[in-house]
Amino acid sequence: EAEPAQSAPVASQPAPEASSATVATTANQAETQDQDSVRVNDQKYHTKVQVSMVSDYKSVNPGQSFWVGLILQMPEGWHIYWQNPGDDSGLATTVSWSVPEGFQIDPSDWPTPQRIRDSDSISYGYVGGETPILAKITPSKLLPVGHAFPVKATVNWIECEQYCSPGEAHLQTT
Predict the structure, then answer these.
(1) What confidence score (pLDDT) does residue 26 get?
(2) pTM for the complete prediction?
(3) Distance CA 4, CA 57 (A)
(4) For residue 153, what are the CA distances in angstroms to 75, 162, 172?
(5) In DSSP terms, which residues pair with 70 in a beta bridge?
(6) Percent helix, strand, coil in the chain (nearest 5)?
(7) Dihedrals φ, ψ of 138, to 5°?
(8) Under 8 Å between Cβ of 81 and 157
């Protein structure tokens, strides 16, 4: 059974500013990882969680911050764990970001997790639907005009319904 935990919601993503923008990214929805299975220790698991990388910026200015998000989509009845899963019953979802040298990336903004009660324990995570994880990125003030750049993320999670299995996604926008 899941119920909201008490804490502040995720900050809203700012609207892009009109500018003589310079650094191109490829698309509003950068890429969706095609992942219906993952292999761990020679065991193949079929994943239920789908992950996509999104940004509402098509271009940015040197030194001007922008937001990139990951959307984790789960079927009803399935859950993943928060970055602090709580009791010893789950494993944290992790996100590793990779940006070019000279870029700064702030810690990810996570939505308020739900309490997940499971027999003897209480965990924290996300149940069914979409879970956005946002990151604020600031490019170098010396970034060349018109230069495309990659933003990469690797996401690892444990997805659970009646059983749990690992999931992993590698995403990129340029």
Answers:
(1) 28
(2) 0.73
(3) 31
(4) 22, 28, 6
(5) 53, 133
(6) 0, 55, 45
(7) -120, 115
(8) yes
